[in-house]
Amino acid sequence: MHFPVYVLHVKTGFEDRERSIQRQFGELKIPFEWVLDFDIDDIDENVLDRYRNPERHLRPDEISCCLKHLSAWDRIARAGEGGGLVLEDDVLLDGKRFETILHRALDELRRRHGASGCICLGDGCALHVPWTKTRRGTYLYPADLMRASDSYWIDQDTAVALKHWVDARGFTLPADHLIETILRELSRPLFWLEPTVVHQGSHSGVFKSMIQLNDDGFLKKRHEFWVKKIRRKYIYPLLGIDPRRR
Question: Which domains does the chain have, with CATH numbers?
Fold first, then answer.
């Protein structure tokens, strides 16, 4: 790939995710960089003051996640490669289609949309473009809502804009809602990729999330995700529901 790939991760405690990322990118022969800045223990009062004290609104893990995204935007802004891919460490890539579909999507972004914007790559929250609205040969579909913050591509100018917005105003929202809000306020394009090429392991129960405490919750979450996916992917379109729109 001709652009950087950044994977948000915690230094210790999630070694299963670390091994998963290393295996997947190793098989694809795609280089990537870990984003290890701003673990919970690294966030002090000076950092909180700088970003307008988000602990009044968010949990420590949510603050850490937002700051890791901010660190990734900063790296994309400074890399000078036109854009970059940001992934959270629980992602599962579609190894057979990941590179091919992503390159087609970026070519479409360049040809049809001025090479600018944010592309949601995965099926976060079990959300899909309604199959009744997809078109052959089209991979990018404009959206009002961020699918999730687990996997997305942004161009360099958008990364700069996101970073400057947060530097100036701080944040009080979780990462997905924060990105969505900034893009909307700055009139930056947001797209959903379809078909998706990334699956979020902690949503579907492949990985335990930071707040899951027992196996019962783990199995329940897996079951709930697949019920939700069937409903949102196959039934919503029949009811005329388009989850891309507010």
Answer: 5-239 (3.90.550)
